[in-house]
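Summary for the funding panel

The consortium committed to producing paired sequence-structure records for every protein in the target list. Below we show the first two records in order, beginning with the earlier of the two.
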Amino acid sequence: MSQLVRSLYMTYFLWRDGFGKAMPQLFEDAEGALEASLNKGRNSGIWRMDAECVDVIGKVLLIHDDQLAAAPLHRVLDAEANVYGFLRSSDASDLIRLNHSKMQSARVSLRG
């Protein structure tokens, strides 16, 4: 599970830097699905993803595979450093939702 969390955030940081095509909602859905799976595992001791989580994480991993084929090594290493920095600095897994909430708020204030 922890490797899937790292892969999700790695994919997200590379996507934010212009590598890979996806809608932001995919990352939000994946983050929520992994968070739910982690919570279930902590509560029950059974570490398993449901079919919905498998589906959304599979989509993220396909994007990540394409990113690794296209992104220069220094960009991959930068994204990896961002992931480890985030994971060391926070025990929350809401990075994607928080970032998109901030971006949506900024867009609204720019229009207003």
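The next record, for a separate protein in the list, is shown here:
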Amino acid sequence: MKYSFLIMIVLCLCLSACGSNGVHDGGLTPMPPNKNDPKDSVLINNIEQFLARKGAPAHSQYDFVRVDINNDRLRDGIVLFKIPYSYWCGWSGCGMAIFKAGDNSFSFVSDMMNIRGPIYIGPAQTNNYHDIVVRLSGTNMPDKNIMMKYDGKNYPKNPLTEPELPSYVNIKTYQQYLQ
């Protein structure tokens, strides 16, 4: 009985030595810090930097939408450039850029040309990014919906070279953005 009591005291002392001195760290495996969804103003700043790097007109006008395209619970930025029309657009559409959201930041992912709205985000993913469907029209080809898949580095530059959305896919099941 005496030894059992002594063993319990030694065990308690050993376990208390493994404590955290009053600081709770949430367990043995450190958890990554919570990421903060960046504000629209941060995206706008990144768009302005993109325009400057590209040598594009500073007064360029665009529409953007925030949507999580890589399932990291942060809203990424999809930007469709509109004006000046002669710089951003042509007979088959306009320029578009995608920015990945990070912890209060954005990083450039990809830019594309010949894009017309509406833009759809599909439920399927390629290399952990949702497939994007754009409308191909205004060309010498019949109008059609084009599937843009992420290749691990970026989305295709030009939808003219990409496959048509299969006819068995119901586009109404896709989330629609940017008219």
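Regarding this second record: DSSP finds three helices and eight strands in the chain. Residues 40-177 form one domain.
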